[in-house]
Fold this protein.
Amino acid sequence: MKKIFYLMSVCALAFISCQKEEMADNAQSGKFNYTFTANHVLDTKATVSDKTDNKWPVLWEKGDQLGVYLADGTFVGIANLTDESAGKNSGTFTLSTETEIADGTALKFSYPYVENAVSGTGVVAAEQTLASAASAGVGANAVAFAEAVYVQGQTNVVLNHVNAYLKFNIASAEDAFAGYNLDGITLWADDAAVSGNIDGNAYSNTGDYVKVSLTSPVTVGTQAQPLWLTSLPADLSECKKVYAIVHMSKGTETVTLPVRLNGAGNLPAGSVTEITLPSLTKSLAPAWYEPVETRYIAAYGEGWCYGPENTVLFTAKNVAKTVELKARGNFMNVVEPVYVQVLYASNQSQDKTTGFVKFDGTDSYSGGFIDHEIGDDYSVSVSIGNVNNSSANGQISAVLVKDSNKNTIWGINLWACFNALKTVTYDNGTILTYDLGAGNTIDAYNDWKSQGCYFQWGRPWAFPYSDKDEFGWTRVPTSNAVTLAKSASTPWAMYNYNGEPYDWYWGDGNKTDRSGDLDDLWGNPTSSGVGVKSIYDPCPKGYRVADPAILNEIESGINASIDETTGAITSAEGAATEIVTSTSLYYLKHKGVAWSFAGAHQNASGSNSRIENKVDAAVYWSNAISGNQARAMWVRKKKANNKYSIERLTGRSRALAAQVRCMVDTEDR
C-alpha cells in the first residue's frame, strides 16, 4: 500500500566568529511519497548561502538524498530531493519504491545518505574534496540527523548538523601569491580531534587535521575569497598548535603556507566559524620552514624534507659551502631543525678522520662526532678537508639533522669529488660520467669500491661499500611497516622486509595488496616515463636520478659472448655497449662513458647478502617503478648449467641497495 505524507526538511546552520549566531528557520511543508530502493548512492550536495541577519540558510541541491530508518535503526530506504526543491532552504524528499509506513511510526533520518551506514552514524573525513571554493558541495562532507513521527498529511523534519563548518576567507598580498592557483586548505589542530567517525555524540578513529582539495583550483586574488571545509565540533582555544595550511601552485612551484591561528576558539556543531586569514606572504610561515618548493613533493603530495638538496657536492678541498636546512613539504610532519652531527666521514671505507668535515670552521670530530648548533638562518657552513685514503677519491659523508631534543629528523649526503665533473649526452638525456658518490670514472681508477655508493630505491641516503659497526650505517631486517617518518628518522638504516616483494616501505602495513605502496618517491610512478626531480631524489642540485630510457640504451646495446670454461666476456665488434675488462675489473662502456660492475647490497630476504665481486654485476636504479618492484639496469655474468650468460632483468626489489647515475635536470633543481 502506498502511503503519502508531508515532510519538510530544514537544514539549518549557525555562525560563530566571536559569538554564536542564530540559524535560519523557515519551515515549509511538502508532499512526500514513501517508496523503497536499496543500495543506490548519489553524491550529496548542500550550499550555504549568504548570511542574512546573522543566519546561514542551507540550500538543497539537485541530487541530495536522505537515509530513512525505523527507530531501531532498520533501514527503510533512500529519499531523493524533488527537482523543484533544489535551491531552497526547505525541501521535499520522495522514496521511489513503495513501502508501508503506519501513522505514528517513529522514524530517523540521516544526511547525507551513505550506503550501509547505520542511522545515527557518520564520518567527517580527513581528506575532503570540493568542486568549488564557495560552499557548493560542502554538504557532501556533512553529517546531520533527525527524528520525527510519521503523520499522514504532514511530517516536519528538522535536521541537526553534528559537525562544524569552517569558512576561510583567503587573499594574497599583491606581490606575494596573487595569480597562483588555490588548490586547497588544511586545518591542523595538533592536539585536538577534528576528523573521524561519529556515533551519536561519540567520536572514534579521530584525526588532528581536515584537508579540503579543490578539483578545479581557483586563482588567488588580492580580494578575499571563501574556501569551506567540515570538521568535528571541537574547542581549539587550549590547543598549543592550530594552523591553517594553504596549498597553492604555479608552474613548477608548490606552495605550502602554514598560517598560525591564535585563539581559534570553539567550533560548535551545527555552526559556521568564519576565519579571515592575514594577507598571504611567505613571512607568515615559521622562520625554519620554506613554503615554496620547486621539486616534486613526493608521496603523492604528502612527503617532506629538509633543505633544497639531499646531496651537497664539494669540488674543492677546504672550500666552505652554505648548506640550508629549512623544512619543506608536509608541514604536519616536520619540526624545527636545531643541530647537525656527522654520522660517518672520510671515504668509502668510513675511517674516522679528525678535521675531515668542518661546521662553521669547527672540526666535527673531537673524540667522537659532536652536535653542532645551526645558525639563526637555519643554515650551516660546511667544508671538506683532505681525503684520508688517497686510493679512494670518491667521498660520501653523512650528516644527521636533529631537532631540539637531538632526535634525528633527516640526513644529508656530502659528496667530495675533487675531480672536475663531466657530462655526456645520450639519446635520452645528458648524464654524469661519475656514479653518485664516486671520485672518478671507473676506467680511470681501478678500485670498484670507490665507484659510488648504494641507495635503496626511493630513499635519498647513501650507503657506502663498508658498514663498520662503530661508524656508519646498519642493515635492519624487519617484518613490520617502515613508514616515511621512520625512514626519515633513521637515515643510517638499510631496511628490508623478509618476504615478497622485499620492499623497505610498508606505509599501511598491508603485505597483501600493497595499497599503501608509494610509487612516486623518485618522481616517476610509471615504468617508462621521464619523471621529475623529487624531494627524495639523492642527486645534487642540477641533477636527478636517470630515466629508464637511458638505462635501456645501455642494456639494448650489449652484444657479447662468454667463454663457457673461463667466463671471459668478449664484446662483439661494433657493439653499442662494450663489456670491458681491465686488471680483472669489469665495467660497461657506452659512448665512452663507463658504468661500474660494483655489485649491490641484496638486503632483501633478510640474509643481508652482498653482491660484492667486482666482476659480478652492474646494477643501477632508474627513477621509475616496475610493478611492485623498481626499474633497474641489472647486467650480470651468471653461470648456470655450467654455462655463462648475461642476465638482464627489468625489475628489482626496492629494498635492494644499488648504484645511481645522475642526469641533468633541465629545470636546474
Observations:
- Residues 1-45, 347-351, 388-393, 604-608 have pLDDT under 50 and may be disordered.
- The helical segments are 484-489, 548-556.
